[in-house]
Design goal:
six-stranded antiparallel β-sheet, disordered N terminus
Length: 570
């Protein structure tokens, strides 16, 4: 079996890894669909990074938290409409526990039952700049990226309900380690981009947001969302130090390849999460597992995703690392009272063309939005962007990005003339998602990939080469009838979520951000609606944002970048 062949001899006392660094890197760099690695990080010191431990290490240092309301709305709660406070992790933990001391602290204005808090995108290199030794607690070298540590990683600490609006990252692919609590990921392939109504408002380099609240979609306004295919997985930390035995060989599974209860299909919702004994014939009959038949445990014939044989031992704890491939959309929500996760973005050669596209987008958005009346109150710039850059600076970005593209292309030609190295070694370097555009390029080892925004699906024979099994679990799509999440879509005026889940409140979003119409409300007034509920064309006006949604649509920008590069090449 491919998975067994990838194992290597281990020294006494060394943690057993199911994949060598080279094999893990090959999987990361070639797999075009999301998957979860298990048992790869059991010896990482970062597994102890729960919120209480981090609070002690930070020792009173304040960090910024983003706060949002837990109420459900039809529009995403973008960062421009959140509140922000600076607080210590100790104060955050006290608030999340409802301690009286919070009545006068930074969270005093935010009732825990109504708000969630999220310390998101915290670069470990910055918040622990005075403790550089802690960087080595994170060891991405196990995945084939030597020297990559916490210094190139990001920390996320949230309360129940904390979420990131649905978006895709323009650059790289993503590896995510869950340390504490559970997070539910809703992923959509790049081919679903048009169904997710992409927008660059609020503007942030490297992030393309969806106008759809995927947790509570407005199918009147976004009918094409019905055509999406959701890949849903709940990422959990496992239980370190737990030793399996004969009486507990099959435990509640934590990785949910299933139709989620949140999507209202109660007849097919029963999963092993609710089972004390997953081998019960009655419960097995009720369970709908979306796994191919070959993925069965050889000792019990139970699907790998439901079997803990060999998953959680004392050394590994079954810790899970999610791979989010390039350009996969994702909406992420914390479903436990406290969650902690660590991620790292892996840069790809295709990012060189993506940086040209981002430079074009920045130039257009800044030029058009800066020309608007500043008193209109449209918060178009994401808080992660310090200010709108000038046209001259944006033009410099564009020229440097184009120059870097051709420099790498030239290096690629030289590289192809040499003895070939592994594709994974040729395609990666470190990246930092939210920093300003880096337009420099190290020519050595660069090899440009053919850039396609559409979803590139593996052929059957290619998928067979991937060693799926208990240590690499493929995230599979939901069934066709539930992929559109139609059962929780609010098509009228209702604000109630029509379903529940076992992990806590799901999809509780709120935003007062105005729609891209004249009305300042989240819903268009009744007198501006036709009898069928659609906007009255005679009373609707297009906005600057409507124009931008067309001008900087990812597909359009991709075409413009290709035309620009062709012009420059000549």
């Amino acid at each position: 079996m491919a998975g067994r062949e990838s194992r290597r001899p281990t020294a006494p006392g060394e943690d057993v890894k199911p994949f060598t660094p080279g094999k893990a890197k090959e999987i990361v760099m070639t797999l075009q669909q999301p998957a979860v690695f298990c048992n790869m990080v059991g010896d990482w010191p970062a597994l102890h990074w729960n919120a209480k431990y981090l609070s002690a290490v930070l020792d009173g240092k304040t960090i910024q938290f983003r706060l949002g309301l837990k109420t459900v709305d039809l529009v995403p709660q973008f960062e421009t409409r959140c509140s922000y406070v600076k607080a210590t992790l100790e104060e955050f933990l006290a608030w999340s526990c409802g301690q009286p001391s919070c009545l006068s602290g930074p969270f005093s204005c935010y009732e825990y039952s109504k708000y969630w808090a999220y310390a998101d995108y915290k670069y470990i290199a910055r918040i622990f700049e005075d403790k550089p030794e802690i960087f080595q607690d994170v060891r991405w070298s196990d995945f084939g990226f030597p020297g990559r540590s916490g210094k190139e990683s990001t920390l996320w600490i949230g309360s129940e309900g904390a979420n990131t609006p649905c978006h895709l990252d323009s650059y790289g692919c993503n590896l995510v380690l869950q340390v504490q609590g559970r997070k539910r990921w809703h992923l959509f392939p790049p081919g679903d981009t048009s169904f997710l109504y992409p927008t660059r408002i609020p503007y942030e380099e490297s992030s393309i947001f969806s106008k759809v609240n995927v947790a509570n979609p407005d199918l009147k306004r976004f009918p094409e969302f019905r055509n999406t295919t959701a890949y849903v997985v709940t990422l959990s930390p496992g239980q370190p130090g737990r030793q399996p035995n004969s009486s507990s060989r099959h435990q509640k599974y934590r990785l949910h390849h299933r139709r989620d209860r949140e999507f209202g299909d109660e007849n097919t919702t029963q999963t092993a999460t609710d089972m004390e004994n997953p081998m019960s014939a009655q419960k097995v009959e009720q369970t709908k597992v979306l796994l191919p038949r070959p993925c069965l445990c050889f000792c019990c014939q139970w699907p790998w995703a439901l079997c803990f044989s060999g998953w959680e031992d004392a050394s590994s704890g079954g810790r899970q690392v999610l791979l989010v491939p390039r350009h996969w959309w994702h909406y992420v929500e914390s479903i436990d009272p406290i969650t902690v996760s660590i991620n790292s973005w892996i840069e790809l050669d295709a990012d060189h063309e993506a940086r040209v596209e981002e430079a074009i987008t920045r130039m257009l958005v800044c030029a058009i939005k800066s020309a608007e009346n500043p008193n209109d109150g449209d918060l178009w710039l994401n808080p992660t962007e310090v200010e709108a850059t000038s046209h001259e600076i944006n033009l410099q970005y564009l020229n440097k990005a184009v120059s870097a593209y051709f420099k790498c292309q030239k290096a690629s030609v030289s590289e192809q003339a040499r003895p070939s190295s592994t594709g994974a070694e040729q395609r990666t370097s470190t990246s930092c998602k939210r920093k300003k555009m880096e337009v420099g390029c190290e020519p050595e080892g660069c090899r440009l990939l053919t850039h396609e925004f559409g979803f590139s699906t593996f052929k059957a024979e290619e998928l067979q080469k991937i060693p799926f099994g208990p240590h690499l679990i493929q995230v599979l799509p939901q069934s066709q009838e539930t992929s559109s999440m139609g059962t929780v879509a609010v098509e009228g005026d209702s604000r109630d979520l029509l379903c529940e889940n076992e992990g806590g409140h799901f999809g509780k979003l709120h935003s007062t951000r105005k729609q891209l119409v004249i009305s300042n409300d989240c819903e268009m007034p009744a007198h501006q609606m036709d009898s069928d509920g659609s906007p009255n064309a005679s009373q609707t006006a297009l906005s600057t944002n409507d124009l931008l949604d067309c001008l900087v649509n990812p597909h359009i920008i991709s075409l413009v970048a290709q035309l620009l590069l062709e012009r420059t090449r000549v």
